[in-house]
Amino acid sequence: MIEFEEALDVVMKSAFSTGTETISFSDSLNRVLADDITSDMDLPPFNKATVDGFACREADLGVELEIIETIPAGKYPEKIIMADQCSRIMTGAAIPDGSDMVFMVEDSHILPSGKVKCTVPFTKTNISAKGEDVKTGDTVLKRGKMIKPQDIAVMAAVGCTSVVAGKMPVVAIISSGDELVEPAEKPGISQIRNINASLLMAQIQRAGASGRYYGIARDNEEDTFNIINLAISENDIVLISGGVSTGDFDFIPAVLERAGVSILFSGVNVQPGKPTTFGTHPDALVFGLPGNPVSSFIQFELLVRPLICKMMGHQWEPLTIDLPVSETFNRRNADRMAFLPVVITGDGSVSPVEYHGSAHISAMALADGIIAIPVGKKSIEKGEIVNVRQV
Ligand code: AMP
Ligand code: MG
């Protein structure tokens, strides 16, 4: 059994790159940029009105102004603003030459003569200057970034319609256990629903990879071996949940070895998730995850998610926040590093959710995050600052 930090190190060092491919920017959500993206133009591309109003010279603000043109967005102004003149202008339209400000429609008064006057003594310029957001050639998105909706917006703005991205690792999911039935079925006596396949599929997708479900391996060595063998040959990563503890039917480690997997660790000094097993095969990296859903969930977040990201070229860091705990927490045994589900309360503190152990998946659904309690630490005092990791 190894400590968590060492396990993470072993997993990350085993990462291999999945390579890159060119994809449409519109399909790039959650993918990782393999190249910097630069802008082919200034943004804004011209001096632009940020309000509907009247473009004039600042020096003429208190004067009755002749309206010489109407400039909608998308039309380039034809007339130059001279003294005592202005053009009616719409949000997003190009500022006419000769003017250096726009006063808002709301601050204007049209006179019977047809002229217009600004009704306030001063205003902002209401002009967004050419290139003030982005200059031609600027790097707008850096390689290694995991693409969010707002990044896709930036790509649209700079005309980057195809991007080179890290290939999505293909991740196999195998559930193990004679007691499992699929979620659509009503479990018979002593059966339970297969939670982990759906859980891991969602986690894989959130991590930016592609999941493939191989079904339930029944608790016999032949069935388990055949599924694992197939999954290893067809995927970059294989996740098997269940069958890794020390019960009579927990023969996953033996089957992995038979399938040619070199086991790098079997057992991590964490709670939940102690039986977590990891090994490498020339065709795939293989995890044996604990059967209890909270354990599987947490071990995926801790070990599999950063691995997936690294394989795509992204150095993933969990989002964390330091907050005080609202009540004292004690544990009897401090031999293992523990992860606890917590909620962030309205007053900016954090409190543990009622949690009965690693089968209690509904506690995880209530949690905003998890906190780690290091080896050797038996209690967290009320008011102590803890690092909450969003999950
Ligand atoms: P195991 O590691 O196979 O000994 O399983 C540990 C516990 O997790 C047992 O209570 C199993 O019934 C449960 N379990 C195993 N696989 C799953 C699964 N896919 N979904 C929900 N619970 C599971
Ligand atoms: Mg089992």
Can you describe what's shown?
Helix 1 (4-13) runs parallel beside helix 6 and helix 4 (221-234) packs across helix 5 (252-258). This protein has seven helices and 28 strands. The mean pLDDT is 97. With 391 residues, it is α+β, with helices and mostly antiparallel strands. Helices cover 20% and strands 30% of the residues. The protein folds into four domains: 4-19 and 167-311, 3-Layer(aba) Sandwich (Molybdenum Cofactor Biosythetic Enzyme, Chain A), CATH 3.40.980.10; 20-39 and 141-166, Molybdopterin biosynthesis moea protein, domain 2, CATH 3.90.105.10; 48-128, Molybdopterin biosynthesis moea protein, domain 3 (Molybdopterin biosynthesis moeA protein, domain 3), CATH 2.170.190; 320-390, Beta-clip, CATH 2.40.340. It is elongated. Strand 20 (277-281) and strand 21 form a beta hairpin. The structure holds adenosine monophosphate and magnesium ion. Magnesium ion binds at residues 176-177, 242-243, 249, 291. Magnesium ion is lined by residues 176-177, 242-243, 249, 291.
What is the count of DSSP helices, taking H or I runs of 4+ residues?
A: 7
**What would you call the shape?**
elongated
Number of domains: 4
Strand count, sense and barrel status of the largest sheet are: 6 strands, mixed
CATH architecture of the largest domain: 3-Layer(aba) Sandwich
Total count of strands: 28
Structural class by secondary-structure content: alpha+beta
Poorly predicted parts: none
